[in-house]
Amino acid sequence: MSDNLNSSELWDKISFSLFQDLGAISFGTFVDPLSPVGLEENRFVFKVPSEYADKIINQWNTEISMKFVEYANKITGKFIRPEFRSTDEGITASPNQGMSPLSNQSESESEKHIPFSQDAGLDPDYTFEKFVVGSGNENARAIAQAVAEGPGKVYNPYLIYGGVGLGKTHLMQAIGNQYAKDNPNARIKYATAEDFLNDFTNSLRKGGDTNATALFKKTYRSLDMLLVDDIQFWAGKPQVQEEFFNTFNALTKANKQIVMTSDRYPNDIPDLQDRLKSRFEQGVTSDIQKPDVQTRVAILRNMQDQNDLDIPNDVLQLIGETVDDNVRTLEGAFHKFEAKIRFMNKPATIETAKTILDEINANKKTVVTVDRIQQVVAAYYMQTVDDMKSGRRQSDLVMARHVAIYLTRTMTDMSLPQIGQAFGNRDHSSISHAFTKIEEQVEKEARMKEMIQALAEDIRSGQ
């Protein structure tokens, strides 16, 4: 935020964007009645007429707060959350908190919860300070900060999705670490979706020992914050989905925070129960894209500082420009370069960088073939290539087939008849129909366009 930009000017800019986004009727109903008080640290305080408070705050919960934070972050580069105060009582309230102060949990209620160690699962290196922000993740980072500072209030549940190695786990654990730092007695648990499944099945395996099942439920349902990684792992596993649904309801009913990650948008996870998808959609989702060159170089500089190295800028630039897969691959290239100069006494030069880039095949691009496209798309949709070539008409399978046909048409020079032959000897009209259908979705739906771009990058990268 510019030093010369005061709170009134900031609100003018944000409210103008909200007006464009919401339209005149919604803006007049849910924004215009507010009286801006001004900035207090990282909060923008409003007075709200008490007679309309419940209606206005509920609408901010479901739609407007996220937009406010995004616009404020874009203008100022900082996380600023909205906060409401009643014009009659002067009571402070944030969205999802209503117009009454939060009551502290009694000691007797706290004692009902089993003790829980924050050490189980949280990596102390995953912090906001070490998370490099760029154009592909700045929105997710801003919302994550909001969750850490006000869990269970504005963004609950919060789901971060994106490809492998882009920083989803880092960002999610940063939320947990920040909350743990601010609230030393909080009950926080990080678990992968597989961990949750294993804990659940292990409690069931004990058969008649009902205490095991009760302990499992008490462990997960007495938390202040639950962090679950890679929920796409639950695809096609209805029993664990049922248990998580019940855990989800118990935590959100108590205004406890849930944060999840996935490699795709929830609606794209096959065989995920509709009621779980519905619950996820009640909260907020953010995608993380592959970092651009500037962000990749910033990540390398950050790693250089952490490892107390002195690497010329042109060397970092070369590595950042060449390794364009994901953050995990970039880190691997950096550590390989580090090993060369630390343990093999190689100079930190362009020549050494080119050597390690050749060793990891960073300069060699994968030849795009229909087989490669089919493998990547089938894996994404959790189908098999053989099923994709078959005549089966299951909805998830049809979508996978159409996407693979679209990518084959746009990424290779194969003719429609050749593509038809590669997809189970389908005729020209079937291939044309599949291509046109996805093409129209890409033009109209931002999420479909992002997914196609991500799949294309994975196909080209050879990952």
- The CATH architecture term of the largest domain is 3-Layer(aba) Sandwich
Helices, by number, come to 20
Shape category: globular
Relative helix content: 40-55%
Strand content: 5-15%
Give the total of beta strands. 9
Q: Structural class, judged by helices and strands?
A: alpha/beta
Subcellular location: Cytoplasm
Biased composition (Polar residues): 93-107
Domain AAA+ ATPase: 154-289
Region (Disordered): 90-114
Report what the structure shows.
The protein is of the alpha/beta class and 463 residues long. The protein folds into 4 domains: 7-93, 2-Layer Sandwich (GMP Synthetase, Chain A, domain 3), CATH 3.30.300.180; 118-288, 3-Layer(aba) Sandwich (Rossmann fold); 293-359, Helicase, Ruva Protein, domain 3; 370-461, Orthogonal Bundle (Chromosomal Replication Initiator Protein Dnaa, Chain: A). The protein is built from 20 helices and 9 strands. The chain has helices spanning 7-22, 24-30, 53-76, 107-111, 138-149, 168-182, 193-205, 210-221, 238-253, 274-281, 293-306, 313-322, 327-343, 350-359, 370-380, 385-389, 395-411, 416-422, 428-444, 446-461, and strands spanning 35-40, 43-48, 81-86, 92-93, 158-162, 188-192, 225-229, 257-262, 284-288. The strands form 2 sheets. A 5-stranded parallel sheet has the order 6-7-8-5-9, sandwiched between helices. A 4-stranded mixed sheet has the order 1-2-3-4, covered by helices on one side. Helix 5 (138-149) runs parallel beside helix 6 and helix 13 packs across helix 14 (350-359). The radius of gyration is 25 Å and the shape is globular. The two termini are 39 Å apart. 35% of the residues are buried. Mean pLDDT is 82; it is low at 90-119. Residues 154-289 form the AAA+ ATPase domain.
